[in-house]
Amino acid sequence: AGTGGKGLAQARANWEAARREGRGRALTATVDSWRDGAGVGWTPNTIMPINAPNAKFPPGSEMLLSEVTYLRDEHGTRAELTMMPGSAFLPEPIVLEPVYGDLVPPSPAPK
Known about the structure:
By secondary structure, the protein is α+β, with helices and mostly antiparallel strands. It has 1 helix and 4 strands, in the order H-E-E-E-E.
């Protein structure tokens, strides 16, 4: 039992499904610059428009830039961008003030 019961369990199940779906739809692109079209360095947590019809994203889709890897080698300067839907980063539902039923009693010490 404990706090939340069925409602919290359902919220956690929905969160887990959204998280897995979001992370399963990750999109990686390599671009030829460390900066975007406005001259600003690629920054994680930026919402980006996506135009990738071959990747089955509808027109007008947006994704969250989750990771940037800056590369400089014999192939030049470029950045590898990893983007995911925002649902991949939703916070997990938790109980902020647990009651007695939510706490696990300590295991007895071995004799």
